[in-house]
Amino acid sequence: MPTALADVTASDSTLRRFLHGLPGVDAVGLEARAASLGTRSIKTTAKAYAIDLAISMIDLTTLEGADTPGKVRALGAKAVNPDPTDRSTPRTAAVCVYPDMVATAKQAVTGTDVKVASVATAFPAGRAAIDVKLGDVREAVAAGADEIDMVIDRGAFLSGDYMTVFEQIRAVKEACGTARLKVIFETGELSTYDNIKRASWIGMIAGADFIKTSTGKVGVNATPANTLLMLEAVRDFRTQTGIQVGVKPAGGIRTSKDAVKFLVIVNETAGPDWLDNNWFRFGASSLLNDLLMQRQKLATGRYSGPDYVTVD
Asked: Could you read off the pLDDT tens digit of each residue along the chain, which spans 312 residues?
């Protein structure tokens, strides 16, 4: 826990007082700024750089009940070598799978710098006893997960039981050992920007290495506005504590144009220190294919079409 904020979690009341004392979010202003940043034009050279950067920031993800070892191995191969016809294409940051698929994913990316991330804590609903959630985390870490993506207890948060949310994140962080922890808020269920801001601060104070918008399993996932708000939070947190925390928008980011908009928001809000896959990720499955097609278009002057890329 950051020394500068140690007193904040002394009790339920001190944590509540701190969270509700955060400046309220101007929703209209936030959305207007996010929309404005999304209109910035990116020139050809900068676009090529942005596309490669975005590829390097992807957590290539499969989180379906029908996942098989073969599908996970194929995903790992794609993460390591996204475009077999162009070896200059960056690798993705990670592959993200369920805990029981971690060992398979780890084998698929062995010998490379591609990380294996695993969702845990009864993803996506988070409705399980804390012992079950921690067992989920320990299983994934024991299998070789480099990163854990946990979901918060939204029921506890929305009922105002902030201390339970904080304590569960702390417990999961401890169970992670050396694995990095991404804390998922499911922003579409938190309803207000003020709640997203409060959740961001709980996650950061509790030791999150990343704060993440969503599971990708609900109707409203990552948006420019909620990602902008979370970037403001990590920027302010570093100013106050000296600790840098990453941000991961997930769900609904499907095109290169979308990805570039998010990168502009990162640069203009948190700054260039976050333009690195240690501090910014995209939770995506279909985004990579569009980035590869756009990359080919810049290189050759024409689209190769969807058959150019593998189907996830």
From this structure: 677 688 999 999 999 999 999 999 999 999 999 999 988 877 778 899 999 999 999 999 999 999 999 999 999 999 999 999 999 999 999 999 999 999 999 999 999 999 999 999 999 999 999 999 999 999 999 999 999 999 999 999 999 999 999 999 999 999 999 999 999 999 999 989 999 999 999 999 999 999 999 998 888 899 999 999 999 999 999 999 999 999 999 998 999 999 999 999 999 999 999 999 999 999 988 899 999 999 999 888 776 665 555 544
For residue 177, give the amino acid letter: G
Q: What residues form DSSP beta bridges with 107?
A: none
Q: Are 237 and 230 in contact (CB under 8 A)?
A: no
Burial class (CB in 10 A: 0-12, 13-18, 19+), 26: exposed
- Cα dihedral 301, 265, 145, 199, rounded to 10, equals -150
Report the catalytic residues.
149, 212, 248
